[in-house]
Amino acid sequence: MSILVVDDEPMMTDVIKMMLSLYLDARVVTTNSPHEALEILAGDPVSLLITDYFMPGMNGLELIKTVRERQLSMPIIVLTGYYDSPELKLGNQTFGTFEIMGKPWSNAKLVERIKLLTATAAAT
Q1: How many other C-beta atoms can be found within 10 angstroms of the C-beta atom of residue 56?
Q2: Segments in the chain forming alpha helices (H)
Q3: What sign has the CA pseudo-torsion 68, 70, 75, 76?
Q4: Are strands 99-102 and 27-31 parallel, antiparallel or unpaired?
């Protein structure tokens, strides 16, 4: 399993990578730029994408839209402090289903969602 983590705050990507490495047998790639995430995805498809919502230059919803336009169907989790954002809920209906989890998150719940989403994606 491979996971791409995108967040403009380096500390967040470091914490998420360390946590996922403890709980999952997964290759975790991180970037602090949504644009770099698209470059990574162009050359190295992943099993799951985890992204922040508010980031400079391109927000998480714009990243998801571009990912879906490129016909990439991996599961996506948005980790955000703006869990109840109407834009995210509308984007979920417009750009295909993705999970929305609030910051701070529960490590156990995040790992559980990752396992479920990747197992479901692998079965289809």
Answers
A1: 9
A2: 10-23, 34-43, 60-69, 86-94, 107-123
A3: negative
A4: unpaired
For the domain covering 2-123, report its CATH number: 3.40.50.2300
Tokens of 12: 């967040």
pLDDT tier for residue 42 given thresholds of 50, 70 and 90: very high
- pLDDT per position as a tens digit, 50-104: 999 999 999 999 999 999 999 888 999 999 887 677 777 766 666 666 888 888 8
Cα dihedral sign for 14, 15, 18, 19? Answer: negative
Question: pTM of whole model > 0.85?
Answer: yes
Cα gap 17→32, rounded to integer Å: 12
- The DSSP 8-state label assigned to residue 70 in this structure reads T
